[in-house]
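## retry 2 of 3
previous attempt timed out at serialization; input unchanged, resubmitting
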Amino acid sequence: MRSLRGRLTLGVAAVLAAVLLVSGFSVSEYVKRTERETVDDRLRRTADLSRANALNAVQQELPLDDGRLDDVLRASGTSLRLTVGAVDAFAIGTPPRTPVARRDGFRELEDGGRRYRVYTTSLDDPALGGLARFEVTTRLERIERRQRALDRTLAGLGALALLVAAAGTFFFTSLLLRPLRRLRTVAAGIAG
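## retry succeeded, writing output
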């Protein structure tokens, strides 16, 4: 572009594009991190609230059949699973078909095309010899869907802001440069 107006418009648009890109990425990552922390907190609380019932079920060899809990867990895409050694003692909800982790903590996994966030912890019972592992799992579909929607919204708003800024810059530089064009016309008339 040889015109000053075009170069100013491109310069402002380039700076604004960089600012919008960094801002959009920062917002997206912040929301993603916050969502994961919320899921992790929910999984940890679910494990803490269910730990005593799971331990009772294993110690007394009782089936842990609570239809209401099962319905709530299924509706939220969450499941509970207790294993002793390599054997599943019980499962509520629909856990993934992957082995329970040997280490305590959080992890993400994929099973059957679905992504899951998993919290695994040990059941502290000397009678079980540290072999009991308790796992709380939730599907990530809804969170990932919301994240994609947010990313699309941020991209759309960024593109719209960029177009508006470029058009505004082009318009205002036309107004600001009008006296210079007149001066150039007058100078060309004097020189000619």
